[in-house]
Automatic annotation (TrEMBL):
Region (Disordered): 482-508
PANTHER family: GLUCOSE-6-PHOSPHATE 1-DEHYDROGENASE, GLUCOSE-6-PHOSPHATE 1-DEHYDROGENASE G6PD
Superkingdom of the source species: Bacteria
Any one GO molecular-function label of the UniProt entry: glucose-6-phosphate dehydrogenase activity
Positions contributing to NADP(+) binding: R63, K170
One Pfam family it belongs to: G6PD_C
Organism encoding this protein: Kibdelosporangium phytohabitans
Name of the protein described by the UniProt record: Glucose-6-phosphate 1-dehydrogenase
Pathway: Carbohydrate degradation; pentose phosphate pathway; D-ribulose 5-phosphate from D-glucose 6-phosphate (oxidative stage): step 1/3
Primary role: Catalyzes the oxidation of glucose 6-phosphate to 6-phosphogluconolactone.
Family per record: Belongs to the glucose-6-phosphate dehydrogenase family.
EC numbers, comma separated: 1.1.1.49
Catalytic activity field: D-glucose 6-phosphate + NADP(+) = 6-phospho-D-glucono-1,5-lactone + NADPH + H(+)
Keywords on record: Carbohydrate metabolism, Glucose metabolism, NADP, Oxidoreductase
Amino acid sequence: MSEWQNPLRDERDKRLPRIAGPCGLVIFGVTGDLSRKKLMPAIYDLANRGLLPPGFALTGFARRDWENEDFAQVVYDAVKEHARTPFRQEVWDRLAEGIRFVQGTFDDDEAFDRLADTVRELDEERGTGGNHAFYLSIPPAAFPVVCKQLARSGLANQDGESWRRVVIEKPFGHDLESARELNGIVNEVFPEESVFRIDHYLGKETVQNILALRFANQLYEPIWNASYVDHVQITMAEDIGLGGRAGYYDGIGAARDVIQNHLLQLMAFTTIEDPVSFSPQSLRTERIKVLSATKPAEPFGETTARGQYTGGWQGGKKVPGLLEEEGFPPDSTTETFAAITLEVNTRRWAGVPFYLRTGKRLGRRVTEIAVMFKRAPHLPFDQTSTEELGQNAVVIRIQPDEGITIRFGSKVPGTTMEVRDVTMDFSYGRAFTESSPEAYERLILDVLLGEPSLFPVAGEIERSWEILDPILEHWTKQGKPDPYAPGEWGPPSAEKMLARTGRTWRHP
Ligand SMILES: NC(=O)C1=CN([C@@H]2O[C@H](COP(=O)(O)OP(=O)(O)OC[C@H]3O[C@@H](n4cnc5c(N)ncnc54)[C@H](OP(=O)(O)O)[C@@H]3O)[C@@H](O)[C@H]2O)C=CC1
Ligand SMILES: O=C1O[C@H](COP(=O)(O)O)[C@@H](O)[C@H](O)[C@H]1O
């Protein structure tokens, strides 16, 4: 064979799509909301993009008395309703050949033995090669029993030639102690490198783009620190209510639901030092370092706010308050809005407050990171000419209208020197012809490829709870959250929380 190598080949290979090797995926909880709306459509989308191996197998495990064909019909309906990419019959036919169903409950040993038989048969019939991932799309209380069943039935066994991986949905625990306990149980069955804890925000293109923005450019990094940044606001606002989600949400609340995971990860991506490389280990090391340096600002009575939506009008429709939503007790103290202040005690960030907020039934659906810069030390203009000038800002829009906006002052055309804010916009939709894959597509593919960069490790999860636990304890003592009407941006206490520091929230 010639020793000559095409000098462009390595670079080109890096851009070729990464296709999973022979494998299968078992989903627990296939009748659930997440599975129907996100997981099954994402699997079809991956198949449609040619990223799954030819003999790929999808096995569902649930209580319903179904045959393989019944489950295949459920997957078909989910794909038709929710898939991102166009439906192609030949892709579906190929995928459907590998669909299996196992009926059972989580405490049923025989059901798990049947699952083990099914997996063995798939290895023979479909050539899955003993490589299987188990996706726990189930209530968090059931994570331990399913892990134990996977161990008991031998499904977690890896023989060195093949792999077994477990995928665990959020929330991972409800405080530090329960997260540690759960990590212990999971790690008794699966080594840490086989555990993929899902935080679907890390699968979003725009979240990964934070790293590109910061580390692929020279423009931002020199000013990305306490000398130039005044504060950072991270917002995840939703306009929907919690109808139909009481079983999961009551007693959990906004902070556990999204601050502990999505928002702290957004903060970590915004604040990490440049990783040595983009290897999973380097990225995780930097994320853990910054989370370890993060503390909630005190006193919590002034630095946090929490609210619960009341009934009212939104988008021209009458909507119920949380306490009128089905399944929530009339005295529920679950918060549907949460805002907290964090300090990142590193040389780069000391003194810069990070304000994180999230809520349901707010003004609109938007997730963004707004890096707000200090004002120029001196303005050589009349005071009246700069009255409408705000702070410079870099706003990273995670969703919708994914992109980046930079706000700066500009002269208003005319004979006077009047300066006003203008914006410069980068929009994914306009800049690229490629459409963004759904977060779950990216993450499921990464599980099958064994690529762990975008999955939080045990240490990150535990650090996040350490940050949040003292605030949650304070709120428990406080009792009822403050009311806010649908369409508002949280309760008045949220505005006060920033007003005390002379700042205001953005109302994006
Ligand atoms: N829905 C979402 O948008 C999101 C969900 N998540 C997480 O994903 C996971 C699943 O959520 P979601 O789909 O909403 O939950 P659902 O309540 O809609 O579904 C739960 C699933 O678990 C099954 N199940 C529950 N108990 C048992 C049991 N004893 N034996 C067998 N099957 C059982 C249910 O089966 P059956 O139909 O028979 O009851 C159902 O398929 C949770 O951890 C959640 O926190 C995370 C982010 C977003
Ligand atoms: O994890 C969760 O995220 C969803 C919002 O996800 P997004 O990708 O649409 O921003 C949220 O509604 C849910 O409460 C939470 O569990």
